[in-house]
Structure formats: structure tokens, C-alpha cells
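dumping this here before i forget
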Amino acid sequence: MIRAYKFLMRPTVGQTQALAEMLRDHCSLYNGALQERRDAYRHPSKTSVKYGMQSAQLKDIRAFDPERQGRWSFSSQQATLRRLDKAFAAFFRRVKSGETPGYPRFRGVNWFDTVEFPKDGDGCRWDSTPHDPVTRVRFQGVGHVKVNQHRAVVGKVRTVSVKREGRKWFVVLTAEQDQPEQLPATGSVVGIDLGIANFLADSNGEFVPNPRHARTVAAKIEAAQRALARCKRRSNRRRKAVAKVADLHRKVRRQRLDHAHKTALGLVRAHDFIAHEDLKIRNMSKAPKPKPDPDQPGVFLPNGSASKAGLNRSIADAGWGVFLAVLHAKAESAGRELIAVDPRNTSRTCPECGHVAKENRPAQEKFHCQRCGHHAHADTVGALNVLRAGLVRREAVPA
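structure:
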């Protein structure tokens, strides 16, 4: 089992400068390799450049430019070239599947924030001073950097990465470990229904309120963005304004992730079996299609885009995708069973008589069966139906 760890680093002023130079030089290598691939494709011979060819050139590149390329780890530079190769592989996959291709783009120095070291001990060393009470990680060309290790790393460290987030630096580890000890059985099963009015409702009638992190700081973000729009480009004032906006968004992301971890952990500890809706979040948050006026060419009819934009913001603020990813990881680690079911009509189906009708849900929170008169909270009804569908899927025998 592979688990990732992320720790804050405490580099000195000199080490901060060296880390920034490492990102800059790897970004230059990435852009140079991308330019070589573009030029090869535009050549009349339509030559195809692959990762193996570019990796073989690294020795000559390092010898030609020892100050900028020769000082860094060879394996980390190979990882940067593999990163470009993965970008092209994803591009061709999207072309074949008919999606928007998205050709790989050149990276600015402020848009290249990660360098990976594929193997601990090759250009880097985690916990390089084991007898020192302060944990340190060593990077070739940078030195021994202090790390704020807030929890123990279990297992053998495989890869080490440097990541810059704003003005902070982090080290990201991936460790291979044995299957962790599973949590004791509770005998409890639950279905959950994700929403916006309430973040989560379960089949036991309990609710988790929606924290709405982005809405809480919306006024601050709006003020910071207005201040940013008034700044002159390439000025120090604009650079500080950009950092302030990024810090606010970063704080919202951390709050959303923290809420997802705490909610998922509570579910995993309390239940052996969890059923949830298989939500297609990308489809749910699509903008509505324009409605051309048949009587007036070039004129469009109202299509509800304003209200849909507000709903899309609420969906994004809830962070369903982040929560489900965290829930899957924690359930696997704890040995819990997790099943996704089709969400269609889960909040329109009566759990007492099975009657399905749009009229069964007259309001956002109300459920009133038109056949048997059953009353309940609509989200609780949805969670009950999700649980039943999950149990049916679990008991179903594959053909």
C-alpha cells in the first residue's frame, strides 16, 4: 500500500534561493524539451521525439551548462522529462477519445512548482541526519533542510518531491507500507446523501451541516481581487496582491480538505458498510446551453445561466469530489466496504411503498409520498434509498 506524507520545510534564506533556482532550471528543461518536440513535429519529416531520446541527451546538456543543469540531480531531471511525456500521452488519449485535446503548454517560472526525485537516496535523502533531534531532508545542490515533521512516516520511503505553495515550501513523500491494521467491526451499515443545504445526510436521520468555506471569505476574496485589478502589471504591489489572493484561496482549500478528512473519518470509524451516490460532478456543474431566438437571429432567450452559475459555485464550494476521494482512501485503509450507486430518483422514491414520482418531493427538504402519505426529510429518504441500493449491489451475484 502506498501512502503520501506532506511536511512543511523550514529552509534558510540561502536554501530558499537554491530551491527557487532548482525549480527555475527544471522549468527551463521542461520548456526546452517541449520546444524540441514541437519543432520535430513541424519539420517536414514529422519526426517523433520520445522520452528515451530526450533522456539520452541529458548528459550532454549537463556538460554544456554545468551552472544551471549540471548542479541538480540527474534522476530528478529524468522525472521532469517523464512529466512532459505523460502530458503528451494524456494529450493523445484525449484526441482519440474525442475530448478537448489541450496541447501541452510552456510553463512560466511561477507555474512550475514541483520537482520529483524518483528514489530516496538518489539526489535526495529523507531524514538525512537520523541522530539529530530535528528532522532534515537533503537535496543535491541545496543541502540539509529542516522539516516540521508532525507525524511519523511508516514504511519505506520511495519518492521525495519538493513543492512550492506561495511563499512556503513542502516536502512530499510516498512510502510503501504493509496493509494497516483494520478497524474492529461495528456491525453498522449506512447510506449517505450529499447535498448543498446540508453537506451530508445519512440513513439514520443525522446531518452534517455545509460549512460553505468559500462563501465565508467571499467578501475578502472579492476585495483582494478588486485591489489586484487596480495594480500595474509587473509591479511589486501587484506581486503582493497576487500573493494575497492566492493565500485566501489556499486557506479555503485547506479548510475544505480538513472538513473532508474529519467527516470521512467519522463515517469510517462508525460503520462497516457505506453506500454513496455515484455523482457525475463535472456533468452537474456544466453551464446551460444557449437558446437562440428563432424569430430574431443573433438574439438569445433566457436560459437560467445566472441561477445555474450560483448553483455551480455552491457545488464547487461543497467539495464533493474531494470528500469522496478521501472517503475511498480511508475506507480502503480501514478495511471498510464502500459502494457507489446510481443516484437517479433516490430522493423521489418512497421508502415505504416504493412509489416514484416527481411530486413526492414538493420542496427542497420535504418528502410527501402521493400514494401512501409518508412524510420525511427528503435528504434522509435519499440516503435510505442509497443504502438499500448499495445492499442490493453487495448481495448481487456477478454473472
